Amino acid sequence: MNTTALDRPRSFWPALTRDPMMFTGLALLVALVGLAMLAPLITWHDPAALAPRMRLKPVSAEYWLGTDSLGRDLFSRVLYGGRLSITLAALVSVISVCAGLLLGLLAGYFRQLDAVVMRIIDGIMAIPGLLLAIAMVALGGATIPTMVTAIAIPEIPRVARLVRSVVLSVREEPYVEASLGMGTATWRVLWRHVLPSTINPLVVQATFICASAILIEAVLGFLGLGFPPEIPSLGSIISEGRPFFQRAPWIVLFPGVFLALLILSVNLFGDALRDRLDPRMARQRKG
């Protein structure tokens, strides 16, 4: 039976301390996620509260990141916007991985379903993901279910193709053929022998899906197709601050830095995790 690096959790922490990129990415990610999730406890201004007399105030002891053009506290808006992006990305990642895993298992293990499933996947991949998200949000409105669905659909085929490639190679392994020869039920073979082989690539793929979902949500907000103005999101905050950039650059700078660091931390951790779970990638980098 195939074993994965995740089956040995004790070896993960020593590897974490020896890998500067993994440690940096994970530490930065934990710090940003912690700030976003603790936003109700560490902010004292309502992110939607208007205060016209305090508009465009610079960084101060009361307003740690200044205020926007409507006098709203930028610190609370950035943290609440990051909280929304992280939650959305987590939902997209879970849905994409679960749906893609199911389709990939069906296409890779059952030959009679392979052609049908892969043609459907190829059709979905022919549609640009951002355009599909824009169309779905424009038709269904900027609600969390619509946003999650719009961002997840283009990611499902990528996960399915990844799982299918793994299943196709594992299906021919001697231990799988021996298990089938002994009369083991198909579902048990999938569960005990095939599924564990997909864990490592799925974990890595999930990190990249999170980064992509955060970026797409920010792009939709920047284009004015995101959530309503009373719900802060990083993309909409940047978009609203563009006309005032020369006078109050912090309106664009701080949410942009938070967004960039969030995506960077996810990608750093994902790259390091890929090297950790796939030794061939690590050897290629060293070479």
Automatic annotation (TrEMBL):
Please verify whether the record's keywords include Membrane: yes
Q: Where in the cell is it found?
A: Cell membrane
Annotated membrane topology: Multi-pass membrane protein
**What Gene Ontology cellular component terms go with this record?**
plasma membrane
The residues forming the signal peptide are: none
The answer to keyword Disulfide bond applying to this record is no
The cross-references to SUPFAM superfamilies, in alphabetical order and at most eight, read:
MetI-like
Quick one: where is this thing mainly located? membrane
Q: Which UniProt keywords apply?
A: Cell membrane, Membrane, Transmembrane, Transmembrane helix, Transport
Q: Provide the transmembrane region boundaries.
A: 21-44, 84-110, 130-154, 203-228, 248-270
Q: Which residues form the ABC transmembrane type-1 domain?
A: 86-270
Q: Which Pfam families match?
A: BPD_transp_1
Listed under GO biological process in this entry are: transmembrane transport
What does the sequence similarity comment in the record state about its family?
A: Belongs to the binding-protein-dependent transport system permease family.
Question: Can you name this protein?
Answer: Glutathione transport system permease protein GsiD
Organism of origin is Achromobacter animicus
Instruction: Specify the taxonomic lineage.
Output: Bacteria, Pseudomonadati, Pseudomonadota, Betaproteobacteria, Burkholderiales
